[in-house]
Amino acid sequence: MKKLDLDVLEMVVAIADTGSFAQGADSVHRSPSAVSMQIKALEEALGKPLFLRSTRNVAITAEGKMLLDYARRMLAMRDEAWASIVRPEMKGRVTIGVPDDYASSLLPQVLGKFAIAHPRVEIRVIGLPSSALVPLLKDNTLDLACFTKMKGVAAEFIRFEPLVWVGSPARKVWQERPLPIAVFEHGSTARAFAISALQRESIKYRMSYESPSLLGLISMVEAGLAIAPLAKCSVPPHLVQLSQNDGLPQLDEIEVVLARSARSGRPPCDFLAEQILAEMRG
């Protein structure tokens, strides 16, 4: 009997999207051992491997890619079917603000699922640094904002995100003094934490680049011109995550929160906020 459990297919998608059994397990709120066991059982039933595992990497096979395409479509149909019966009339517009580093890593999967489940709700995303999102919340330009916790802003806790130093494997500029760093503009929590950590360890540094853009910081790091303090979730896999073993100070975690404007008390905002909190807390 040919059976494809949707919960297991969701695990396949999660592993493929994160490139890791551990991170995939986190995203579906299961233990890594449980996910590994379910995937192994599915592979045995299919008679073909879906993933090639090594000590450091997980690669999807050709058969895995084929199943992945079907899995995405089947899960999308499940969500659409559920929404069409449970919340058939929900429509409207939600404007959400998010910094570049979270927009590229934390939110795409959540927003994609929400769009499939609620096709009549229009989602507008405004990408700005966390400090620039606060005034937009206060004047109700935004309904929701997912950002780094800011003083004086009421918000609901989502998760702590590690902050890490990132460099290029092609050039070890982290060994230079003064240390060349690329940071976000004034008002950035990551910038403040990085400078504070360097000063605490009496490490001399120089500002090689300042920008509100994540892409700008990554470009400087890729060129081997500086290192940058970035949220771990936003670090491209081809860059090196540095540590105290590389002569750099440990960085504090940043707190990711969800804030709402005064005019966000509408069903589309409520349901999107609910989904963000449920999935990102995992």
Descriptive notes:
With 282 residues, this protein is α/β, with parallel strands linked by helices. The chain has ten helices and twelve strands. It has helices spanning 6-18, 21-27, 32-46, 62-86, 100-103, 108-117, 130-138, 189-200, 214-222, 267-280, and strands at residues 51-53, 58-60, 92-98, 121-127, 144-148, 156-161, 163-167, 179-184, 205-211, 228-231, 240-242, 254-260. It has a five-stranded mixed beta sheet, sandwiched between helices. A three-stranded antiparallel beta sheet has the order 10-7-11. Helix 8 (189-200) links the parallel strand 8 and strand 9. The radius of gyration is 21 Å and the shape is flat.
List keywords for this structure.
single chain; 282 residues; alpha/beta; five-stranded mixed β-sheet; three-stranded antiparallel β-sheet; 42% helix
Task: State the helical fraction.
Answer: 40-55%
The largest beta-sheet arranges its strands as: 4-3-5-12-6
Element-by-element helix/strand order: HHHEEHEHHEHEEEEHEHEEEH
N-to-C CA distance = 33 Å
Tell me the total number of β-strands.
Answer: 12
Radius of gyration: 21 Å
Estimate the global geometry from the Cα principal axes. flat
Which spans have pLDDT < 50 for at least 5 consecutive residues?
none
Largest sheet: 5 strands, mixed
Q: Helix count? A: 10
What oligomeric state do these chains adopt? single chain
Q: Helix/strand/pairing class, anyone?
A: alpha/beta
Strand content: 15-25%
Mean of all residue-level pLDDT scores: 91
